[in-house]
Amino acid sequence: MPDPACRAPDTFYHRTQADRLARPALTGTVEADTVIIGAGLAGLTMALELARAGQVVVVLEARTLGYGASGRNGGIVSPAFACGDSAIARRVGEPAARALHRLTIEGVERLRATITDLGIASAAPCPGVLHLRRFDASADLIAHAEAFARDFDYPLEYLSRDALREMLATERYFHGLRDGRAFHIHPLNTLRGIAAGIERLGGRVFEDTPAIGVELAGASKTITTPQGRVEARRVVFATGGYTGALVPRLRRAVLPIATYMLMSEPAPELLAGVIKTSAAVLDDRRAADYYRLVEGGRRLLWGGRITTRAASAAALAQQLQREMRGVFPQLADLKTELAWSGQMGYARHLMPQIGRMQPDVWYCTAFGGHGLNTTAIGGKVLAEAILGESDRIAMFAPFGLPWAGGPLGLAAAQLTYWALQAQDWWRERAART
Ligand SMILES: Cc1cc2nc3c(=O)[nH]c(=O)nc-3n(C[C@H](O)[C@H](O)[C@H](O)COP(=O)(O)OP(=O)(O)OC[C@H]3O[C@@H](n4cnc5c(N)ncnc54)[C@H](O)[C@@H]3O)c2cc1C
Q1: Closest approach atom of ligand 1 to CA 368
Q2: First CA to last CA across the chain, in angstroms?
Q3: Shortest-distance Cα residue to atom 31 of ligand 1
Q4: Among residues 67, 416, 18, which one has the least CA distance to residue 239?
Q5: What is the pLDDT of residues 165-175, one digit of tens each?
């Protein structure tokens, strides 16, 4: 059998993963209560919840565990959806938007609890996320923190410019909010720990096993793979930004959007003089960058930028480097050792797509750029629906599976991103003059 590790992407996380256990490809026929397609955080979270309830689960992964966005991301676990709260409120009203936001907080806690319960030490959770502003206006930030304390009993600490300078040696930021309940992790190790947890409960995870055919009409569903098949009572599609043509309706509903990260060379002394916090950092531009120290401060991971067409990660890394040097000129000589990209799945409404396509055929996709907490709660809510434990899945019904617009949708997404970049630039410039 070919070694699946050879087909894994080359990222910081793959280079530092806690184990390199390769799962076999499926051969022959297996039976399951539920077959889940896609071994990202959405698929594996759900598989874990179902296995905990005693279900026989089988997870099929086309490539390697965490091959998709879940094994390549920034590792920042914080509340919220990829879609802003005010856009959600416009669509479903304030009370429903608040209830949805509460779910995202629950998602953060759920992932934290999963890491603790399964004893995934290599996830290395580290507390603290800073949301920083690059221009001089603070009233709305302070009001935001007050609203979060009032509406969600969720503490956000305001940080002045002086407080920020203690943590980050840059003139770039003016104000910030510290979220002490948010945290950051090694996402691939987290995923590996969850897969092991599923297997301890009798579930099976197959790598190198793309679902290539589906028969969804009868009471028993059949999923065909190159060397085998699964017969199951129900099917869940959790294929994120890697959703292919298997189920055309799903494919049409998800736009794959690429985003990029770089890993610096080891430079602990240089970095310690510049970034004096172990918290992850996000700026609050609409086209934001994010970064954090890893390996105990030896290296910097920096992420940002989106494209709707595959671009070379190396070329995009140069843009990220320019951005990094704009914030920290002291890092001008810091070399990039590795750059990579990953695909996020976006729906037209920017919200996750969690629901039922037909009896016993479910989907759990489109978590966009805010998937660590939302896959945790999305998988939980869908498992509750399958098990008949709750109807919380109905909260996602107003969003559904609309057509994402195909090539036109991609062009619109790229134009929107460029427009947001221009607005960010203008906002900063206007605030400085
Ligand atoms: C570079 C980057 C940085 C990010 N940073 C953050 C961050 O800091 N915080 C945050 O909250 N979110 C972040 N995100 C977003 C987050 O990673 C995603 O929203 C989340 O991981 C999506 O998980 P998923 O399980 O839905 O999809 P994925 O992890 O993409 O998993 C889908 C899987 O399905 C498999 N698949 C597809 N088709 C088939 C098939 N036919 N048969 C079998 N398997 C199939 C794929 O191979 C893939 O492994 C980032 C994303 C990227 C790309």
Answers
A1: 19
A2: 63
A3: 40
A4: 67
A5: 999 999 999 99
